[in-house]
Amino acid sequence: MKLIIAVIKPFKLEEVKAALADIGIEGMTVTEVKGFGRQKGHTEIYRGSEYTVDFLPKVKVEIAVDDSQVERAIEVISTAARTSKIGDGKLFILPLDEVVRIRTGERDAEAL
Questions:
Q1: SS (H, E, C) the chain
Q2: What are the C-alpha distances in Å from 21 to residues 49, 54, 78, 87?
Q3: Segments forming the whole domain that contains residue 72
Q4: What CATH code is carried by the domain that includes residue 58?
Q5: Where does residue 6 rank: exposed (0-12), middle (13-18), buried (19+ CB within 10 A)?
Q6: What does residue 80 show for φ and ψ, rounded to 5 degrees?
Q7: Phi and psi of 90, rounded to 5°?
Q8: 36-45 contacts at long range (C-beta below 8 A, 24 or more positions apart)
Q9: For the chain, what is the domain count?
Q10: pTM of the predicted structure, to 2 decimals
């Protein structure tokens, strides 16, 4: 099992959610976050003064998937979140040792 963490542009969330649902992945955790990478923010003008916005709004999507779904999930998220412009985001794939469904006590693949 793997934990996939996707940091994407906020307006791409619904597209990513729908694309994952199409391949049978429906459970996810979504968090509104702020950050920057290579783009290092941007400058804006407010009431005649220029200032730098360092941290840009992003959405962090976390999904736990079985090993058999990892590559397909990566492909689907990458395609749905892509705008081909700087700041599209990143995917982080981490090993997931164990999953337990609290309500039933099911473990691992059955708990997903």
A1: CEEEEEEECHHHHHHHHHHHHHCCCCCCEEEEEEECCCCCCEEEEECCEEEEECCEEEEEEEEEECHHHHHHHHHHHHHHHCCCCCCCEEEEEEECCCCECCCCCCEHHHHC
A2: 45, 33, 15, 24
A3: 2-111
A4: 3.30.70.120
A5: buried
A6: -70, -30
A7: -145, 155
A8: 37/87, 37/90, 38/86, 39/86, 39/87
A9: 1
A10: 0.85
Look up residue 59 and give its two tokens: 């959405």
* Residue bearing the bigger pLDDT, 40 or 31: 31
Q: Read off the pLDDT of each residue in 58-82 and give the average, rounded to a whole number.
A: 96
Length of the chain: 112
Residue that the structure tokens 């473990």 belong to: 107
Write the single-letter amino acid at 67: D
Contact in structure between 60 and 34 (CB atoms under 8 Å): no
Query: What average pLDDT does this structure show over 19-46?
Result: 84
Q: What is the spatial distance between Cα 75 and Cα 93, in angstroms, rounded to a whole number?
A: 12
